[in-house]
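> tool_call: predict_assembly(chains=two)
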Amino acid sequence: MNASNNFVTKIVNQIKRLVVYRPPQEATRFVLQEPKKDEAPASSGQVSGVSKSLAELTKLISYARRLSKAMEETAQSIKSVPIEKAALTLKRLCLSLEKQQSEVTPLLLAYDGAETQPSKLAVSASLAENEKIISQIYRLPYNADLVIRKFSIPVEPVLQAMIIYIDGLCDSKTVNHLILKPLMLYSRSAPGLPDSGVLNRLIAQYLPSSKTTSTVTFLDIQDAVNSGDAALFIEGEAAAILIEGKGWEHRSVDRPIFEQTVRGSQTGFGEVLGVNIALVRSLFNSSDLVAEKLSVGIKSKTACMVMYLESIANPELVNEIKRRINGVETDYITDIGILEQFIGDHPSLPLPTALNTERPDRVASSLNEGRVAIFLDSSPFSLVMPVSLFSLLHSPEDFALLHPYSSLIRLIRWTGVGMALFLPALFLAISTFHQEAIPTELLLSITSARLQVPFPTFLEMLLLGVAFELIREGGLRIPGFLGPTIGIVGGIILGQAAVSAKIVSPIMVIVVAATGVASYTIPDFRLSAAIRLASLALMLLSSVMGLVGIATGTLVMLAVLSNMKSYGMPYLSPVVPKSGAGLDVIIRGAVDRQELRPDALNPKMSRRQPHISRVWKKQKRNGGETN
Amino acid sequence: MGVAAGIALVFAVTIPRVFLSTLAGRLVDDAQIAWLSVVVTSGAALIMIRLLLYVLSRTGGDLIDATRQLLGNTAAYLVALFYIMLFLGNTVLLLREFAENTLLTALPLAEFSLVTIWYIAWVAVFIWFGIEVVGRVAYLVLPFLVGFMLLVIILLIPFYNVTQLVPWQGHGLTLAAYHGVTMAGVNLGAVVLAIYAREFQSSKTATQALDFGLGGALFMKVIYTQAYLMVFGVYVGQEKTLPFFEMTRLIYLNHYLQRIEALMIALWAIVCMLALAISLYTAVYLIARILDLPSGRPIIPLMAAMVATIAMLPPDIITVMTYEKMYDYISSAGVYGVPAMLFVAFWFKRKGVKRCNAV
């Protein structure tokens, strides 16, 4: 008889089913993994062969369709209008077809080499073909800020045209008044254009912009479009016109309020989503910078942009963030902070799991590391994710300063964290439980100062801590210049009065004030608040068990931090678990030594610069000292 | 888990007795040659657990899987029960001794039961996060722990009397080696690498963690044995209840840096809680394994309450130290017996052994 079927086993199994706790079936936590190998550009001969055949076939079908359409149009023209009138149109059509036919062979060769890099292709005479290549370069339809406008130029015969530019980077007034208006309206009364030199004629007669050139490569086109210019394509012309239209918002936007620096960019985000995206794009002239548009809020349908570098960011991370944003079901989301709570890994913990920044340069450098940025319409902040605890203690200025000084500043910040977290609890523990650790004179001084204070140390510290928080909160809520004044005056008066009234001892004022000042060194406001909360918890533990309580609290806090993840990335990386950090954790290395991107982000490309990035040192120089 | 977390786990579970009375006990047994006894103890544990990890690398899976595969289900249950008993025993003894130490050094006015419950309650909270988090925390704490331990050794330099190291033979080489072999159970904690073998990336990772974790702990133990001997000598050293605390009490840098023993309380409290957490979690994990429970979490409070109750039973610390000596002998069977048994079984069945899916 099978053991699993006997009477006793059945009873045991029944009891076990009743008694044993079954953990709830929850989805497993998202863990950021290495990008899959098959997402890398295919280079094997077989795949390349298939792609080549496909491209060839697509090209031929496109050409055949166009030919068929041209034949129909020709037949119709001949039937409807006199042959002399139709001749000009037909001649242009034939020329265009001839050009397209002549492109087939070289284009196919180009496809073979530039299959994964469409930017290396040459401009086609076919508008449809050009639109397809532009879609590939700019990852359409994901990229929401690229504008493609098709229109007709009413010359004789009518020319089909297409203009592309990036919304926000290129000034729409320039596009409307200096490109579209002359081409669509003023050309109506113009005589027909010659068969050759159409582009030169358009530049000379209809485009009043001072900087206008023609180009035949998509490499030039994407460089120009990424830097804010517009590109004009004409049906039948294997070249494009680049027209200057740079017009993104800069400087006048505003200075960052909470992340001011001595060096580095002085531009901060505003409330207009398109402008914020353009501000980042203006720093990052790369066509694989994708800004995908999503909407959040069932009723508000607030526009939200997910921005990342397609060639660097881990696709799993991008998909996970989009999945979380799409998975938010609520009526209104009015601020990016609310969205963060909806999509974050640990919304019930006070620690931030995304970087909240109002600086475009900070977003750009984070994107270059392989992180993802989220923008919300009407919110002057961007969320950058994933982040570690260590990156939350970086300041935008660190990158603009020389590394020995910025490393020192970071160490001071960490000292600030240590003081804000442990100083009140340590003072409480030592003065209450472990007085032997204090030198005798200091102990006598503390004791004499506390002699007339009627409260126990813990209560005294709590009172002062609450008073400090009241002044801080009051200073924040009072508008304008009164805020800091109230803070300083309130602090001095309250502190002085409390000491005089013997409600608190002077040493306690020093401890609480030092803790408060230390907490201001933390660049992230939310992290600073979390550390103040943790400090309060440590004070409580310390008031019960002294240093043993502090040790206990520290251990539990470390456990919480070790267990946390920021969008799949361990919160304490690259320290725990250990991973490559590219010399930028607490101590920052020289810029030329920061060759690798943070390994914990698992980016598609781990190297951001070659081993020798200061190439000029290897180059032969002219003049100077001789040995 | 990676090598770093493995090293930290082994180090954290094998080092805490340096903070207890073990150093004094070693001087009683072996006098000046106590270091040899420490080396033999750790060396024996290293060889036997390496043997165990070798068997696991060939069979795959963890200790229970390997025993089940080589010796059958009943043997696997018995081995698991044996280790559950040993790890629970370790938790009980460590809890009692650290609670007593806390009363002696840090909180003389505190209630004994409050301290005991405080430790075990927070350990229960800590292990709720799982062994991976415990390993990570141990890895985070490790550099500070080693750094402060070495700092104490350095700050004690003015008190060293090298002549106290002689006669170097102590009570005799053979006796020291014998004590070393019979006391191998003090390093039983290193078996956690075999118990959590599934959690490690590869068998090589676990082996490296064993070498560096146990090797590092051995290094610190030898250094502390010699430093203790040089500071107090054999006869005074035997009388001390808390060698580490007594050593830190001597440190005097200047008028404003004295009496750092109070600050070191935080250090050994963290080590104590880490060791307690690893031992208790291992016992809970093994219970969940043999009862085929989907999660060990619900029994954590139960086990914690049981451990605290047992820890409060002995009438005084002297009784606890007697139990600890007995425990060390019994746990030596966990270091020698089970690995040897599995290796012999593997040797006879090696042609028919198929690898499991892990390690």
